[in-house]
């Protein structure tokens, strides 16, 4: 079928004759084979640097081979530019090398490098000596890893054939591909005078006739696999799970520029695997992409993740010493519309609104008292604004700091360090005293009832009166450290019906102030952060909380923050008009196993097929429907065994894992 240097054209007719002679019956003779159907009219292999494929329209093909590779291959795919080049066929031949031959070769290389290093040293060429020493060290590490069974070597050839409809085009594509590949430091060369053998090697017969090959270790080898056929996902990111239909891994980049926003919602029935999934996402993103996360932990199940990732765990309860001050206000980085530069400012008006909403929820209490109305809100709000004004806090950031007796800009020399001293913030206690004073001074009969209501009801939040929920009264006892991979705020010990959702709301607002607002609006400077709210359904009965969640979802993208809302009962969210922004501002939606009662609803909203909706009722834990933008896929999320050690939510299973680890440690298998 292939001629080499002299012009030799074999047509499909001749091929058919050969096939016909071999066959037995007339029907067999006339039967078309797949080969016959797809074969071109003929191939002209008489040229040194390309082939001509004769068909109704002549095509030109040039086969090239990867001649040089960078020292390191980048995850997940370093050949992507080649795979997606256009009209191209690529073959990657992978031959595992035996451990003994790898060891022998590496030992030889190590000896050679060492000799070279000594020569360089003798000549006083320290730069070369250092480079060779490093190479030798790497080779030794690799040899040891192979001996221990952690790594393996492979021999691999990479062959690509590009096609075009004219020679000019072929030349252009050749240059373009070379340029594209050189961006990744990959050197490709046409197979000069070997075009026919190279072309045949690139047909799916697993018959490599080319001798040029490269040595890969296991990690580098994994980067040649094309992962991009999945309908959902991104080119880079964390491995999220597997596409159940194609079997391909799904990579997901929460901060991909292809996403309209970075928020995520996860819905599923109890036990569907929501918490395990978000923990897996969080820990993989922390390790692989440096994304920091903060969790509002309503069930007390995230502390172990914080521990595993090297983060902190803060517990809020009537017995703990932790205090979160609702009045904390922080400077915010905003872009100046005229100069485009970022500057720091305080937005007191917004803060007054947030604190008022928090206090309003507190005032309504667990019974969600109807007696609290606009007038109550106004009274609360006025007193909050007065609290900031009394401390001289304005929109100027300087107003946050104390001045010394000479009025010098906030630098307190007597404090024995050249740092500025922050003023003490107002507290619920100071605000309560103001309300009591104002109640006494009040002469307006319309306000009388509201004042006396607040004086009575708000006492339970004041530390001075041993209030039961006084953990929001006082100066905050901890700062949110910027550079922690995981911060967990555990509110699980609070009473479930009111104290916990209230804490969720107050903490959301506090986290916004202390964690989100500090992030720059400039993407190049901002760090990637995630705020996750598990058991978000708890917030739904509280209008101010819902309002805050909504606002946060809308504003998060601007601050380079991803809000992850996790809940049972999708229907409750969807039907609540006030919380719509959470759904519409979440480009990523994951639906895990659903209750039968819920599925009809989901089916209508997302126009799911019978198959998809049936799957969501019967699927296993960790399986579900992933929607990213307009694309969707059936996904299976499988934490690794190691990950299960800290993503497990089931306490008794957690205890069993811990026990097994302890026993293994005692046997000396773990350190
Ligand atoms: N991907 C998974 N593969 C295997 N088992 C899983 C997976 N995800 C969760 N599980 C198991 O299911 C149990 C429940 O998971 P999880 O706590 O994440 O559910 P949930 O949806 O958060 O439930 P709830 O709404 O009650 O909080 C876990 O104890 C875990 O063992
Ligand atoms: Mg859960």
Structure notes:
This protein has 23 helices and 20 strands. The strands form 3 sheets. The protein has an 11-stranded mixed sheet with strand order 9-8-20-19-18-10-17-16-11-15-12, with helices on both faces. Strands 1, 2, 3, 4, 5, 6 and 7 form a 7-stranded antiparallel sheet that branches. The longest helix has 24 residues, at 99-122. The two termini are 63 Å apart. Mean pLDDT is 86; it is low at 1-10 and 410-418. Bound molecules: adenosine-5'-triphosphate and magnesium ion.
Radius of gyration: 33 Å
Class based on secondary structure composition and strand pairing: alpha/beta
Q: Which homologous superfamily in CATH is the superfamily of the domain at 260-319 and 478-624?
A: P-loop containing nucleotide triphosphate hydrolases
Distinct ligands: adenosine-5'-triphosphate, magnesium ion
Give the distance, in angstroms, between the N- and C-terminal Cα atoms.
63 Å
List the strand order in the largest sheet: 9-8-20-19-18-10-17-16-11-15-12
* Average of per-residue pLDDT values: 86
Please report the total strand number as a whole number.
20
Q: Number of DSSP helices?
A: 23
CATH class wording of the domain at 260-319 and 478-624: Alpha Beta
Largest sheet entry: 11 strands, mixed
Fraction of residues in H or I helices: 25-40%
């Amino acid at each position: 079928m292939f001629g080499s240097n002299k012009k030799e054209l074999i047509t499909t007719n001749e091929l058919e004759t050969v096939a016909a002679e071999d066959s037995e019956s007339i029907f067999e003779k006339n039967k078309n084979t797949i080969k016959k159907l797809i074969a071109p009219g003929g191939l002209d292999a008489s040229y040194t640097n390309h082939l001509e494929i004769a068909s109704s329209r002549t095509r030109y093909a040039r086969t090239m081979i990867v001649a040089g590779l960078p020292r390191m291959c980048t995850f997940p795919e370093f050949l992507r530019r080649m795979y997606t080049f256009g009209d191209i066929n690529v073959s990657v031949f992978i031959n595992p090398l035996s451990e003994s031959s790898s060891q022998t070769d590496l030992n030889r290389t190590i000896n050679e490098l060492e000799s070279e290093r000594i020569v360089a040293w003798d000549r006083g060429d320290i730069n070369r000596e250092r480079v060779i020493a490093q190479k030798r060290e790497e080779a030794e590490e690799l040899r040891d890893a192979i001996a221990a069974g952690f790594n393996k070597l492979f021999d691999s050839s990479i062959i690509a054939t590009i096609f075009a409809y004219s020679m000019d085009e072929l030349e252009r594509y050749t240059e373009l591909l070379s340029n594209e590949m050189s961006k990744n430091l990959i050197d490709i060369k046409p197979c000069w005078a070997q075009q026919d053998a190279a072309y045949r090697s690139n047909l799916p017969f697993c018959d490599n006739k080319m001798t040029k090959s490269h040595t890969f270790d296991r990690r580098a080898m994994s980067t040649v696999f094309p992962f991009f056929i999945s309908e959902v996902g991104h080119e880079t990111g964390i491995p999220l799970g597997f596409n159940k239909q194609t079997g391909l891994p799904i990579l997901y980049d929460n901060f991909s520029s292809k996403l309209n926003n970075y928020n995520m919602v996860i819905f599923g029935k109890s036990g569907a695997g929501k918490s395990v999934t978000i923990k897996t996402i969080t820990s993989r993103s922390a390790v692989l992409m440096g994304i920091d996360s903060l969790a509002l932990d309503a069930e007390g199940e995230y502390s172990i993740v914080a521990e595993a990732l090297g983060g902190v765990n803060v517990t809020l309860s009537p017995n703990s010493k932790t205090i979160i001050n609702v009045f904390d206000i922080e400077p915010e980085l905003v872009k100046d519309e005229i100069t485009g530069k970022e500057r720091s400012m305080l937005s007191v008006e917004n803060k007054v609104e947030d604190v008022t909403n928090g206090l309003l929820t507190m005032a309504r209490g667990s019974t969600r008292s109807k007696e609290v109305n606009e007038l109550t809100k106004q009274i609360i709000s006025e007193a909050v604004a007065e609290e900031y004004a009394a401390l001289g806090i304005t929109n100027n950031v300087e107003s946050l700091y104390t001045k010394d007796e000479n009025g010098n800009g906030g630098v307190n020399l007597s404090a024995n360090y050249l740092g500025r001293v922050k003023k003490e913030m107002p507290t619920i206690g100071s605000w309560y005293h103001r309300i009591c004073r104002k109640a006494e001074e009040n002469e307006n009969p319309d306000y009388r009832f509201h004042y006396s209501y607040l004086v009575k009801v708000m006492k339970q939040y004041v530390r001075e009166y041993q209030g039961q929920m006084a953990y929001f009264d006082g100066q905050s006892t901890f700062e949110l450290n910027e550079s922690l991979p995981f911060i967990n705020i555990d509110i699980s010990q609070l009473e479930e019906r009111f104290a916990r959702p209230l804490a969720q709301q107050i903490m959301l607002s506090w986290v916004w102030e202390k964690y989100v607002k500090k992030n720059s609006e400039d993407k190049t400077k901002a760090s990637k952060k995630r705020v996750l709210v598990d058991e978000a359904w708890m917030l739904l009965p509280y209008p101010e909380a819902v309002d805050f969640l909504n606002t946060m979802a809308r504003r998060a993208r601007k601050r380079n923050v991803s809000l992850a809302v996790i809940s049972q009962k999708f229907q409750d969210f969807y039907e609540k008009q006030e919380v719509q922004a959470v759904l519409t501002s979440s480009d990523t939606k994951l639906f895990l196993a659903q209750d039968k009662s819920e599925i009809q609803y989901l089916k209508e909203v997302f126009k799911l097929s019978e198959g998809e909706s049936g799957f969501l009722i019967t699927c296993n834990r960790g399986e579900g429907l992933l929607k990213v933008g307009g694309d969707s896929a059936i996904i299976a999320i499988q934490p690794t065994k190691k990950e299960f050690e800290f993503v497990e939510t089931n306490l008794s299973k957690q205890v069993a894992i811990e026990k097994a680890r302890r026993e293994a440690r005692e046997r000396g298998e773990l350190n």
